[in-house]
Amino acid sequence: MDSVEKTQDQQHPQYKRDRASVNSLLASEATDYNLSELARLIIRYRGFPGARDIQSDLKKVLQKWNHTEETLYEQTRKIHTTGEVYRKQKTAQEEDWL
After folding, report:
1. What is the rounded distance in angstroms from the CA atom of residue 37 to the CA atom of residue 39?
2. 53-54-60-66 Cα dihedral, nearest 10 degrees
3. CB within 8 Å of 19: residues ≥ 6 apart
4. Could you tell me the mean pLDDT of each successive run of 10 residues in the chain, 98 residues long?
5. What helix, strand, coil percent values describe the chain, rounded to 5?
6. Given this model, what pLDDT does residue 58 score?
7. What residues pair up with 10 in beta bridges, in sequence order?
């Protein structure tokens, strides 16, 4: 018997939603929200045994926006300390207590 086991790629439970997000990032500019999404997805798929297409496309977005993982994380730390990138924006019709 061969002592080396072949690992089979896994399907990530969020693949469909994340694939759409990655496609959007590939076609978009580097806004605060998009940079935060890129960082979040890179962290989610780091070391994941599968979704090779997503992992490859995330690297493409990094290159397109002239970032390394280190510079991306540096910038997104600043974004998260100064802004509310993931918070829902209030509309004039919403009340504060909702």
Report:
1. 5
2. -160
3. 53, 54
4. 60 95 97 96 95 97 97 94 73 48
5. 55, 0, 45
6. 98
7. 50
